[in-house]
Amino acid sequence: MRVLITGGGGFIGTHLAHLFTASGARVAILDRHAPQGVEMCGQSIRYIRGEFRRRRGSGCALDSVDVVYHLAWSGIHSVSNQDVSGMPL
Predict the structure, then answer these.
(1) pTM listed for this prediction
(2) CATH 3.40.50.720, applies to 2-73
(3) Residue 84, pLDDT score
(4) In the chain, where the domains are located
(5) Residue 30: what pLDDT?
């Protein structure tokens, strides 16, 4: 299986990548920043520097994948830190 993880350079994404490689999958991580503090040597994890919302960085990453795990976020501080306690579920 071929897996693409957007935003895969973070804590959850790197652990998900290791989980998939342990089961024999080929994994690609699409992120603006290279994964830090995670050993990827000798594993079938490919890092693609780019952003999902930009066609240039994501177009080739979507070729020949079976599943996409979308973990990327906008990074907009004012939106990501809003108080959501009053929002309906």
Answers:
(1) 0.70
(2) yes
(3) 58
(4) 2-73
(5) 87
Nearest Cα residue to 33 out of 15, 19, 13: 13
Q: Token digits for 82?
A: 């809003």
pLDDT-flagged residues of the chain (< 50) = 57-58
With b for 16 or more beta-carbon neighbours within 10 A and e for fewer, the 43-75 pattern comes to: eebebeebbbeeeebbeebeeeeeebbebbeee
What percent of the chain has a predicted confidence (pLDDT) above 70?
Answer: 61
**Cβ-Cβ contacts under 8 Å for 26 (sequence gap 6 or more):** 1, 2, 3, 44, 46
Across the chain, the runs of DSSP E, i.e. the strands, are: 2-6, 26-31, 45-49, 67-70
Report whether 47 contacts 34 (CB < 8 A): yes
Query: Closest Cα to residue 28, out of 10, 1, 46?
Result: 46
